[in-house]
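Weekly structure sync, notes
Attendees: PL (lead), two postdocs, one rotation student
Agenda item 3: pending single-chain targets
PL asked that the sequence for the first pending target be pasted directly into the notes so everyone works from the same version. It is reproduced below exactly as submitted, 621 residues in total.
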Amino acid sequence: MAFDTTRVGEFGEPLPQRDILEGFDRLIAANRLFGADLNATAIKKSGKGTPFLVRRPPSRHRMLALWRDLFANRVSPEALLDALSPEVLGLAHGDGLLLFGKDRVLYDCQIVRGDDAVGHMTLAFYREQEPVFRFLPFPRRPGRRIVYIEGISLSAQSTGYASSLFRAYERFFHDIGFHRFRLKASLSVGKYYWAKEGFDCEDRKQFGEMRENLHALVRRLGLPVEEQEIRRLNHASMVAAFRRDLLVPVYRNAEGYYAIARDASYTEEFRFPLGKAFLLCSDPWDGYKVIYTDTPRRTGLVWSERFLDHETRPGHPESPKRLEALSAAIHEEGMRESLIFLEPYLPTEASLHAVHDAAYLEAFREAAARGDRHFAVRDCEISGGSYGAALLAAGGVMAGIDAVFSDRTDNVFCAVRPPGHHAGRSSAMGFCFVNNVAAGARYARSAYGVERIYILDWDVHHGNGTQALFDEDPLTFFCSIHEHPSFCYPGTGRRMERGKGFGLGTTLNVPLAPHAGDREILEAFEREVVPSIEAFRPDLILLSAGFDAHRDDPIAGLEFTEDAYVHMTRRVLELADRHCGGRVVSVLEGGYRPESLVSSAIAHIKTLQGREGSPCSSARG
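Predicted structure, written out during the meeting:
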């Protein structure tokens, strides 16, 4: 993309006000800058975009105020026009205009090939307040800067032009300091190409319908696709990449549109992978793409208010208040704007049989359905929603695995409950019912062919359930850092426990004496944990991230601070970059004082993002 970089402040520094005003004047003189009346009775309209009438420019004072609000004066008006009109795939922009409305700036142009107009595009730049996620019952934060595709049309379909153009735009908007922006479009054409570039359905209900339609197509054609494969799809980009190994015939008409069935208009046959074929033939859908530009790493957050359905008695340490406090902190810290929210899904019970006995899962389901207050042991309190929440927590880790292996994110934090690392193949204990990390590891191996998996557990309690599930597996390395078992539940995790059979040597326990703090843990981490990761060379790192070793947590006797979690997280990321493409999926385990849980988890998440992992301001009071 070529544009005059001298008109963009160095490193995004704001330009002098006079440069912006002089740019306005030159464009007005060249008839390339106007005002725009945006109203429902105007005569110009693109697709589903906002109708507008061109008029005289507003006052220089109003234009300057809007420019400062939207672009922070980091780009001149002329440089913006240049940057928005690169030549892509032999297509260029003609008659490009900047139009100033009351609260937005529009870019309107023709798309040309040589001297011929072949399409039209309108972009809108404005601020928008997005709805708060349904599990965050708090007021909306100040609006963020948005790029909206008001409309884009081409005479030739399936050219890939739009997705290629907006791929070029992403870097430019990063360079001029948009901390986050959203691209939207009514995806009536180019549906596969938009999804391939990371666009998703604006309406989650619409995505649910897309998934159901895919399922119906698979049934109608009798394709060898399991229901669970479709159930785990939670983003249109995953649909675009779905089952590349399975080719399906589709038919194209003279205008370049596709259909599943041949008829008098759709006659030209092609064979495409299932996901591509489905999207090319699907109904129009409204899409958006969020580009995260304010953090060095793309971090996903798995969360659902259904995790709160697992209810315990008042005063029980593992209560819904843990996640409620974390949700409040994420909102108050403004982190919702820089995290990629991932929806968990319910795994099939059959997919969990690789971790837990079928009879055990059925007994758990029946106990919750009967309304029992405990399951297996007295510290494992349950409610009617506990079984579903526990399965959804395991599915949340699977969604995190999907995200890092589909390149939606670099890493993921799964804020799930109930926790899982004490749960064994047929046993519940220590507030744990389904072993979430183990389910994620088994899923990564079966769904993505991941070979070597390193599980690091830094909860204050030994992850006895996880160790037992993998102690004979030479391809899964389990490392647990915890308070010494002579002083802490569950009384396991001694150094002599190093694995069994073929798995001998792939278990490492690092027990710490009571009152050990940051110095002791970081010395042990560098001395023992780091060399074990280097030697194992994993393809994926999973974290059982408990935060109950914090000095303010009342449930045990270690004295970590947020700095310890920051250092361990940063070192894990460095090792993941070296060995497994940065793929880290972190799963919440313990942490029972809301204030220390929040400050530690926020520090951990910020470090996953590549930011400074300091305690959150809301936790400091």
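Discussion points:
- Residues 5-187 form one domain.
- Residues 386-405 form the longest helix (20 residues).
Action: rotation student to compare against the earlier draft before next sync.
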